[in-house]
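Predict the structure of DNA-(apurinic or apyrimidinic site) endonuclease.
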Amino acid sequence: MLPGDVKEQNESGSANENQHNLSENEDEEQNIKKSSRTSKKGSTLDSWVKKPEQESKGRNKRSRKDDGDVKETEVKKSKSSTPVEESIADTDFNTCEKTTTDGKTWNFKISSWNVAGIRAWLKKGGIHYIYKEQPDILTLQETKCSEKKLPPEVKVPGYHTYWLGSEKEGYAGVALYTKEEPIDIKYGIGDKSFDKEGRLITAEYEKFYLVATYVVNAGQGLKTLDRKIEWNKLFEEHLKSLDAKKPVILTGDMNVAHKEIDLKNPKTNQKSAGFTPQEREFMTQFLNQGFVDTFRHLYPEKEGAYTFWNYIGNCRARNTGWRLDYFIVSERLLPAVCDNVIREKVLGSDHCPITLFLHL
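Done. Here is the predicted structure for DNA-(apurinic or apyrimidinic site) endonuclease.
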């Protein structure tokens, strides 16, 4: 989710954080009207894991798992179906024609979605997405809800869930759904001023780390750009420290369009949050340290591939968007990647889900 003034939004598709946060229900529904496999053992990842002298094996007590197996539910169109439910019913979630470079088919799926308010997302039927996609791991951003106020509908059979909300109600927040219980869960980046905003969860698995994040926004008029630069330094240190032990899979809303190809109107957004030289340069130098943007690795020349569209100006219908949501992996994990898919047809937020297919 990106800020910008109304003129920029209408002409170039950049987002307005103030307008976006006025009402989860109202602005999301306005836009919508317009418009598994489980983890398998014996992986080739064994050779990529760098064994640290000591690794934490403690399980975090905040995990919850809803009983029962995950069963795919039929989301059928009816007169009572919401536009979100219809978009989910129309999507094929399990076809992946691509393989790894050595010809292996996928057996592990990770998905991510900035839901722009989980309560509004639930009311529109967004929970059906989890049942249809059936990812092994799902991360959510901008849940905008403290754990104690979560509706009961967030429970999905067969998943452990972890929630990190912001101290400020109705702001930020990240969540993790996972079929396999992680070895360890850590909340935050180690800085209280950022951690109180609910921006990052790190899950340790046997053969990789999963980092789910909602990165700091540079803000209306770039008023929080310096704060984002401060975050980026801590963020990079955190990821590099993890990568020294095991491969890392980073996913979430990075709040940056890295290259001109990653947004519809680069020329008119040079000074917009999410496309400043400082933000783009950070992404460049970060990726040069052994990390890979999987989508651009697979589709280096693909245009019009966006994950965010501002509600104002009918941007989604015109595909005036930004690619803000990423899967970034340690370079040594690339041999396990099959495909990175953008679910642009799935409604429910000003962002769409993204999915990474792997052979682990």
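Confidence is low (pLDDT under 50) at residues 3-44, 51-62.
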